[in-house]
Amino acid sequence: MVRRGGAPFARWPAIRYAGAVTLEISTPALLFPAISLLFLSFTNRFLHLAALIRELYGNWLEKHDETLMRQISNLRRRLTLIRWMQFLGAVSLFLCVASMVAVMTGVQSLAVPCFGIALGLMGGSLVCLTVEVWISGGALRILLSTLEEGRKG
Fold first, then answer.
1. Residues 6+ apart with CB under 8 A from 74
2. What number of CA atoms fall less than 13 Å from residue 146's CA on the CB side?
3. What predicted TM-score, i.e. pTM, was given to this entire model?
4. Theoretical Cys-Cys bridge with 95: which of 1, 68, 118, 140, CB 3.0 to 4.6 Å?
5. In this model, does residue 98 exceed pLDDT 60?
6. Is the pLDDT reported for residue 12 higher than 50?
7. What span, in angstroms and rounded, lies between the C-alpha atoms of 98 and 91?
8. Backbone angles phi, psi at 49, to 5 degrees
9. Rounded Cα distance, 73 and 128, in Å
10. What is the mean pLDDT of residues 131-148?
11. Cβ contacts of 52-59, under 8 Å, gap ≥ 24
C-alpha cells in the first residue's frame, strides 16, 4: 500500500491517513487555552527562579559557600528547561494558528500535519516540564544533605 512518488513521507502512517482526517476550525483552537495556561505557569516558574538566583548570588558573594554554588548550578539547568518549554510551546501555538488558517482556506493536507506536529511539540514541552519538576527536588536534596552533614559534624 505504499505509494510511489508524491510526498517523501507518504509511507508514514500518520501522513498516509491525513487524507481521511478532516479538522474543524475548533479542533486546533482547543489548544489555545491549554497553551495560555502553560505559558502562565512557565513564566511564573521563570520569574521565581530568576529571583531565587539573584538572592542566592547575593548570598554567595557574601559567604562563598559551595552549597550555594551547587544550588545555582541546579537552577541554571532548570532555567534551560524552562526556556525549552517556552520555545516548544510557542512553536506549538504557531502551528495551531497555521493549522487553523489551513482549515479556513480548505487545505486539509496542511492542517492535519500542522496540528499533529503542534500536539507533538506540546507533548515535548510537557516532558520538559516533568523533567524540570524532577530537578527542582534536587535543590531541596542539596539543602537536606548539607543539613545532615552539619548535624553529623
1. 135, 138, 139, 142
2. 13
3. 0.72
4. 118
5. yes
6. no
7. 10
8. -65, -40
9. 18
10. 79
11. 53/79
